[in-house]
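User: Fold this; tokens only.

Assistant: Input:
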Amino acid sequence: MAKYCPVKDGPALYLDCKECDERVCEEDTKSRAESLVEMAKNKYPVSVSYIGRLSEPEQSKIEETCDIHHPAVYMDGSAMYSIRYRRSVE
């Protein structure tokens, strides 16, 4: 799976990003993943739907606290994600 580049609005050509020096994708990864986790946490026990592209670092960050499913993948490379907060029972 290619890394998503928000500058190009598509997959990055290189594994180590050489498109820009600002590292916009890394900043965007943190904010988008954190906002999706926060939305899922606020709507618990209901799942949150997100349609778009998530990179592997974003998915792994979300999977730390949430269950994530991909019920649909579209022709343009985007997908529909169902994200549900995982409440820890102690």
